[in-house]
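seq as requested:
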Amino acid sequence: MTFETLLYETEGRVARITLNRPERLNAITEAMPGEIRAAVDRANADDAVHVIVLQGAGRAFCAGYDLKVFAEGTEKTDIIQTEMPWDPMVDYRLMKRFTDDFMSLWRSYKPTICRVQQYAVAGGSDMALCCDVIVMEEDARIGYPPVRVWGCPTTAMWVYRLGAEKAKRMLLTGDLVDGREAKAMGLVLDAVPADALDARVDALADRMAGMPRNQLMMQKLMINQAYDNMGLANTQMIATLFDGITRHSPEGMWFKRYAEEHGFHAAVDWRDSGRPIPEGREART
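struct tokens:
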């Protein structure tokens, strides 16, 4: 099996899935979520593999969806639908598939460890939070800035990992936090200096890999079942629907127009600055 957006390799009992678009900070394309699921399936089908490590090539883990071209209106893509009137179920079908692809990391019968350097933002944070365990560089940044306008995290893993109050702190601000703060709030297992990241991830993977596959599988299924009982599937359905609505609300359509007129980076700068975002009638003009 060959992949367009990632690399797959095994060493001993550990499989490594490496996002491989370093020139774009491993930004997510339409092909990437499905390829991640295929790689997870491959690792699960390999009896020699006990643990899966998800990582990113180059400077960053993942900078989110690769939306610059789309937001500026210079090219058509099926990632996001914006024509009005829009069909929310077409949008839902596509985005739910991406959500389920990312959740293959959570539902994998074998443990998944995410290695984060520099950035895990927007869709990149969705991907990271679907792993069982996250280890970050201390100075790396994680968050979901599109909650300010034009987005809702479809996997909804923030609330399940943080609880209501800390999830609201992140999703009602769109802030990024560094690895130290992410560890302090319980979002990630550990945050270490950049030169210690590989050693920490490898030690954790090796420790898990010493367990029998069936033991690893039973513990994961038991823990995940508790989250299923808390309504994870229903929460993800609502989050995925809301994600589509955010992109077709007056404010979402304003963001798209502003990106077309001034460039995606200018639109993101406004979004993240804390400057009030036009809404309602103002957003329509």
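Residues 88-107 form the longest helix (20 residues).
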